[in-house]
Design brief:
With 397 residues, the chain is an alpha/beta fold. It folds into 3 domains: 70 residues, Archaeosine Trna-guanine Transglycosylase, Chain: A, domain 4, CATH 2.30.130; 98 residues, Transcription Regulator spoIIAA; 188 residues, Vaccinia Virus protein VP39 (Rossmann fold), CATH 3.40.50. 27% of the residues lie in helices and 29% in strands. The chain has a 7-stranded mixed β-sheet with strand order 15-14-13-16-17-19-18, sandwiched between helices. α8 packs parallel to α9 and α9 crosses α10. The mean pLDDT is 96.
Length: 397
């Protein structure tokens, strides 16, 4: 990286530093004093020195000059600009938490803003690390990131899964590349004592959804015997239950996902009934066939990706939960999840309640889970809190 004296400057308008001084990391484009420090003159991904209107240093920011979020603070220490040294320090701090929570080396190691590395995600699978860069700055700093990961973890392989839609907003290309060592198509991991393989090269996101780990552990206390895992992806919910003696069926629209489920079941020595198709269509068909389950898990992708999708997405949550309830036995358990940040837990509860009343059922919400502890929440950034999991007992009205 350039020396500190070579870095460009960004200055905020008067009184626009209060939110940042309170802990937030994002700088919005309309907060920048473009008359004194032209924002559009900076290169995407550049590091700049951010100052308040009066000149007080606020931090080093990664710049996205053409985005609403025009800058993200990476360091508030004037003596520690972004680079290998800072990244290695952040990794060690993050590692201290994860090793305390989840011994065994399988967890989300870096969760963007919550680990003070906005735009970077790192998932660890023992000897392998899968990274995602979602901002121009982290794309530009890939080299120091890799150097830091190698220095702190010395993994056998590092993979960039930079093929997510989040990169589109920054005008970044989508791609997957091995950055160091060798990374196989799938890698082993252990979650809550159960062995899986994550399809890191071709699977969704980084290949695994560690954010549901604590909720999947929570399911064990209900001792399910007949489980339907809807939007199953690699089948972690249902396969975990199957290792404890449950019968498990899996629904997904992806043939590749169901292949991963089948292979995982074979490796664990359990049986998996795999059903391919749209979850809405499959659940309706299973009801027509008279199928019943004592536990149905509904863990869909985000139905509300943008605020303008709220009305339509909320209707989709109500509909899928209603279909799921119709498949439950008389005293059944519904696990209803949402990873939509734009849907509050109260709104998800409302959707579940309306679904129940529509078919004359009574719902007791037994507990509410969130994202696992390796996805910590930044208290000043509500967007870092996104996952909801309602554990609901469904009874006749």
């Amino acid at each position: 990286m350039d020396s500190e004296s070579d870095l460009p400057s960004l200055r905020l308008k008067n009184r626009e530093d209060r939110r940042l001084r309170a802990g937030h990391l994002w700088v919005y484009s309309n907060e920048v004093d473009v008359a004194s420090t032209p924002l559009k003159g900076l290169e995407p991904g550049a590091i700049a020195r951010l100052s308040a209107h009066g000149g007080r240093f606020l931090g080093y920011v990664g710049v996205s000059p053409h985005s609403l979020i025009a800058g993200r603070i990476i360091s508030r220490d004037p003596d520690h600009p972004p680079g290998k040294s800072l990244f290695a320090h952040r990794l060690k701090v993050a590692l201290g938490l994860r090793e305390r929570l989840y011994p065994g080396g399988c967890y989300r190691l870096i969760f963007g803003e919550s680990d003070l590395l906005p735009g970077l995600v790192a998932d660890r699978f023992g000897d392998y690390v899968v990274l995602q860069a979602t901002t121009s700055t982290m794309e530009a700093l890939k080299g120091p990131v890799i150097d830091a990961v190698q220095s702190v973890l010395a993994p056998k392989g590092i993979l960039w899964r930079n093929d997510g839609a989040a990169r589109d907003a920054e005008g970044l290309p989508r791609y997957t590349e091995v950055a160091a060592g060798d990374v196989p198509e799938s890698v082993p991991l252990t979650e809550n004592g159960v062995s899986f393989h994550a399809p890191v090269q071709q699977g969704q996101k980084t290949g695994w959804f560690y954010d549901q780990r604590d909720n999947r552990a929570r399911l064990a206390r209900y001792a399910p015997k007949d489980v339907l895992d809807v939007f199953c992806y690699a089948g972690a919910w249902g396969l975990s239950a199957a290792t404890r003696g449950a019968k498990a069926a899996f629904v997904d629209s992806s043939e590749q996902a169901l292949k991963t489920v089948s292979e995982g079941a074979d490796a664990l020595g359990v049986t998996a009934e795999c059903i391919k198709g749209s979850a809405f269509d499959v659940l309706a068909r299973l009801r027509d066939e008279g199928r019943r389950f004592d536990t149905v898990i509904v863990d869909p992708p985000a139905f509300i990706k943008r605020r303008k999708d709220h009305r339509q997405g909320l209707a989709a949550y109500q509909r899928i939960n209603q279909l799921a309830m119709r498949l439950l036995s008389r005293d059944g358990l519904l696990v209803s999840c949402s990873c939509s940040h734009h849907l509050s837990v109260e709104e998800l509860q409302g959707a579940v309640e309306r679904a129940a009343r529509h078919i004359d059922r009574f719902v007791q919400v037994l507990e509410i889970g969130g994202q696992s502890a390796d996805h910590p929440m930044h208290p000043a950034i509500p967007e870092t809190r996104y996952l909801k999991a309602l554990f609901c007992r469904v009874l006749p009205a």
